[in-house]
Amino acid sequence: MAVIERIQVEVESHPIVLFMKGTPEWPMCGWSARAVQALRAAGAQNLHTVNVLEDPEVRANLPRYSNWPTFPQLFLHGELIGGCEITLELLESGELQRMVAEAQSQQQSQQ
User: Fold this and answer.
1) Which residues pair with 20 in a beta bridge?
2) Is the distance from CB of 76 to CB of 46 less than 8 angstroms?
3) How far apart, in whole angstroms, are the C-alpha atoms of residue 14 and residue 77?
4) Residue ranges for the binding site?
5) Could you give the 3-state DSSP secondary structure of residue 94?
6) What is the pTM of this model?
7) CB-based contacts of 78, cutoff 8 Å, min separation 6
8) Which of 97, 83, 99, 89 is nearest to 30 (CA)?
9) Every domain of the chain and the residues it spans
10) pLDDT (tens digit per residue) in 59-87
């Protein structure tokens, strides 16, 4: 399977996907760590992450797929939300909590 197809499967298979450097337990950059903290603060329970450091093909091609140059990258319902700064702004405004709750409730209704 081509790398762009693999990225698309990840994005479409999970309501909340964070492409990050490292893992939620061991983030390898401050931006990724802050994005995970923001998502957890917003109530994300089923956070699916992809460590781009473990997959050079994904790391190289995700910016082309999403048209977003940096990591982390947050996707909700298959749609790019943005990077760490946008995630933090959404948390501060209360919007991220609503978006995460919506994504999780849709996932539960599909199970």
Assistant:
1) 51
2) no
3) 7
4) 29
5) coil
6) 0.93
7) 11, 12
8) 83
9) 3-110
10) 999 999 999 999 999 999 999 999 999 99
Over residues 36-62, the pLDDT tens digits come to: 999 999 999 889 999 999 999 999 999
Crossing angle (nearest 10°) for helices 3-13 and 56-66: 70
CA distance 57 to 40: 28
Topology at the third CATH level for domain 3-110: Glutaredoxin (3.40.30)
Q: How far apart are CA 11 and CA 84, in angstroms?
A: 17
**DSSP-derived secondary structure for 6-44:** HHHHHHHH-SEEEEESB-SSSBSSHHHHHHHHHHHHTT-
Residue 17's alpha-carbon distances to 23, 26, 32, 33, 109, in angstroms, are: 12, 17, 12, 14, 18
Binding residues for [2Fe-2S] cluster: 29
On whether the CB atoms of residues 38 and 96 are closer than 8 A, the answer is yes
